[in-house]
Amino acid sequence: EVVYLNGQFLPPEQAQISVFDRGFLFADSVYEVIPFYQGVGFRLQEHLQRLAYSLDAIGLQAEQDWPVLLNELVRRNGGGNRSVYLQISRGSEGRRRFASEGKLQPTVFACTTPIRHIYDEGADRIQGYNVILTDDLRWHRCDIKSTGLLANLLMQQQAHRAGADEALLVRDGVLSEGTSSNLFVVRDGVIHTPRLSAGILGGTTRALILELATDAGIPCQETDLRPEALATADEVWISSSTRGVVPVTRIDGQPVADGQKGPLWQHMFALFTRFQH
Ligand code: PDD
């Protein structure tokens, strides 16, 4: 295994950063998780656009030829199906201080882990998710892909303790997203998903679902969703880069509709499979 750190490709045990790195001390850093299938970045440009958005949102300048860097990292790790983690922090000034003085050298770190190629495995292999509902404990800038994920982790722990795979989050009486995924609710043949202005992460998989649905003539609506709407939903899905589009078949122990993976999900999964190849 080889990781990338500040211009070098290294074995992980040789990659070192300062204890004063602002990413470590303050989570003063942003990240991306990008799937590579057969060595090729999936929706790479969309991920890099979101990275630019996150960097800009925290006032961090870090210009690099990201595609070259990430492709080289994947190649050095043997290619194949991998998820790439890329993190950029504001760097270190050799001590802990809230206000950072001047312009620091950002810390750029990237690593990869092998992943399954979900769409190659077929819809039958996908298991419906069991989720819980919980209060959204996060801050108000969830549009930034920040490494400050403590609230996400606590809510994920809560889901895990309840024997669930993911938690769906409720803020001010409306659903926002999952701890590490976006949310979709299907009713009467229409795909509904929370608006970006509801303070959620603009998921690349979310955008692709809306794109594929629109191309296939399936109506989509970005709208406020109340938790009560789940009780009468035909289908519920979550989405993320590494998991793709996943059917939710249980919420707080109750089945979604008949508790089976729904037909529109099967359709969307097929659209993804075709899109990948
Ligand atoms: N998480 N919402 C949140 C809060 C997320 O953390 C993620 C992704 C998404 C989905 O975004 P995308 O479709 O671009 O992956 C939505 C990544 C996978 C993670 O933190 O590991």
Automatic annotation (TrEMBL):
GO terms for molecular function: transaminase activity. Pfam families: Aminotran_4 (PF01063). The keyword Transferase applies. Keywords: Aminotransferase, Transferase. Belongs to the class-IV pyridoxal-phosphate-dependent aminotransferase family. This is D-amino acid aminotransferase. It comes from Marinobacterium weihaiense.
